[in-house]
Specification:
Elements (H helix, E strand, L loop, with lengths): L1 E5 L4 H11 L4 E6 L2 H7 L6 E5 L5 H11 L6 E4 L14 H29 L3 E5 L12 H23 L5 E5 L4 E2 L2 H5 L8 E2 H13 L4 E2 L5 H9 L2 H15 L5
Parallel strand pairs: 1-2, 1-4, 2-3, 4-5, 5-6, 6-9, 7-8
Helix pairs in contact: 1-7, 3-4, 4-5
């Protein structure tokens, strides 16, 4: 069995890869910095590492063309980053890079590999999203919007596959805060307990193999229920207070 994981040089991508490796899977790992991948997986057999900058559409397509004949069994879209701050002040260039990586790369790779999975009527896709994917997020507006896109896209694909009686499976992982380098890049420091990357990764992989559509860690299930019933203006107010307190990059 062959697994392709993007953003695999650190955090959940790395830890999902090591968890799957323990089950005997062949790993096809992608990161912008191949040397970090090679250092993390030095001495591992059954591991293939690649350097692609998935912010660029062309690189996403090149990755697919490179691996399309490998008969990948599982695609895990994990690469991404966030940013915090007042939307009118944060960098437009960083916003565009975030959209390119968090949305367009997921979209391109999901579509291209899904076509192959559907043809052979087998395969799995795990899209790493966030609890942010279920609501708006003042002071992290672009990041929350990208994760909303991934949740909506994954749910829609699930229903299409179900109606076609396809054996292809898709899942979307929606954790709350996880202790990874994401926090440093996004300039946030969460004031609630964060899951370890290792634990979150195991929850994601186990949920995928249980054919769960939405994979939500236990510590976020009450939050998920509350999101459904709390008025939207109250969610906006609460999230704005939370992100103001978490961020070191807003004005």
């Amino acid at each position: 069995m062959k697994v392709l994981i993007t953003g695999a040089s650190s955090g959940m991508g790395r830890d999902m890869a090591k968890y799957l490796y323990s089950f005997g899977y062949d790993l096809y790992l992608v990161a912008k910095d191949k040397s970090k991948l090679d250092n993390e997986f030095k001495g591992y057999d059954r591991v293939h590492t690649y350097s692609y900058n998935l912010i660029n559409e062309e690189e996403c397509v090149k990755l697919y063309k490179k691996l399309k004949d490998e008969n990948i069994d599982i695609l895990i879209n994990n690469a991404g980053f966030g940013d915090a701050g007042n939307f009118s002040i944060t960098s437009l260039d960083k916003d565009m890079d975030m959209i390119d990586l968090n949305v367009k790369a997921y979209h391109i790779l999901t579509k291209l590999f899904l076509r192959d999975f559907v043809k052979r009527n087998y395969g799995r896709i795990l899209n790493v999203a966030s609890m942010a994917g279920f609501m708006p997020g003042p002071y992290m507006a672009t990041y929350y919007a990208t994760k909303n896109y991934i949740v909506s896209l994954s749910l829609s694909i699930y229903e299409e596959l179900k109606r076609d009686n396809s054996k292809v499976k898709i899942s979307v992982f929606c954790p709350g805060p996880v202790n990874t380098n994401f926090n440093n890049v996004a300039h946030v420091k969460f004031n609630i307990p964060s899951l370890s990357s290792e634990y979150a990764s195991r929850v994601a992989i186990d949920g995928m193999f249980m054919n769960k559509l939405l994979i939500i860690p236990n510590n976020m299930k009450i939050n998920y229920m509350l999101i459904k019933i709390v008025p939207i203006k109250a969610i906006l107010f609460i999230n704005s207070l939370i992100q103001e307190r978490n961020s070191d990059n807003y004005e």
